[in-house]
Amino acid sequence: MATDIIITKGESKDIVLLNEKAEELHYIQEPDSTLRLHILHLSDPLRTKSGDDKITVEQNGKGCTTEISALYCLTGADEASLTTSVRHNVGGGTSKQNIKFVLADEAKGAFRGRLYIQPDAQQTSAEQNNRNLLLSDRAVMRTQPELEIYADDVKASHGASTGQLDESSLFYMQQRCISKEQGRRLLIRAFMQDITDGIKDEKIKQASIDAIDGIVEKLY
Predict the structure, then answer these.
(1) Which of 94, 106, 162, 182 has its CA 20 to 30 A from that of 125?
(2) Using one digit for the tens of pLDDT, what is the confidence trace for 210-219?
């Protein structure tokens, strides 16, 4: 059953879920409210083998801001999926989604991003991006963007990409006496960095960075 969380008029709420389940969370935003949600699933052994996270956000007032950032770093045979649903029910709001998966070994990831802009939600700006990094040819990623736009005066965009580490960048670093393993770590950290940059609580931010560093060191 979904858990309703109301962001009241004018309220700004920053939420970080570090290795916590995000099952059936339902955020309801009132006018001029701001929601910044960070989800970090970093192959925590305390989680179940398969994590299925579902986030729904409804903008029910003008001037709302929604930002969803997510990072899933999976190793071994770990599996995880994230479904987001952002509904612009009223105009004048903005939403941004930045979703990243890093998959090693035989890990499997899935992202389904739903974006709804209702007929009365004019002057809405919505953006959805999903970037995925595969560190093994056995890793599998599935991505499925879904956009339903029923208003005319809006700005809406989405993008998705899946790839491997840039070999030319690795070669460049090796020419400057950086080992291939160290170069890989640097590229992986750089790929993940912007997800943690937006965390305002410095203690939680540092804990997230430390968790990422621990995983990267184990990869190479």
Answers:
(1) 162
(2) 888 888 887 7
Report the length, in residues, of the chain. 220
Q: Considering its fold, how many domains does the chain have in total?
A: 1
Residue 132 lies in a domain: yes
Q: Which residue has the tokens 């999903």?
A: 130
Tokens 């790929």 sit on residue: 191
Measured CA to CA, the distance from residue 190 to residue 205 in angstroms comes to: 15
Question: What is the domain extent for residue 42?
Answer: 3-164
How is residue 208 written in tokens?
């997230």
C-alpha angle with apex 98: 3 to 155, nearest 5 degrees? 95
**C-alpha closest to that of 53 among 68, 64, 66, 34:** 68
DSSP 127: E
**Nearest-angstrom CA–CA distance, 90 and 147:** 16
Among all chains, which residue has been given the structure tokens 């990267």? 216
What letter represents residue 99's amino acid?
Answer: I
d(CA 88, CA 79): 30
> Whole-prediction pTM value?
0.90
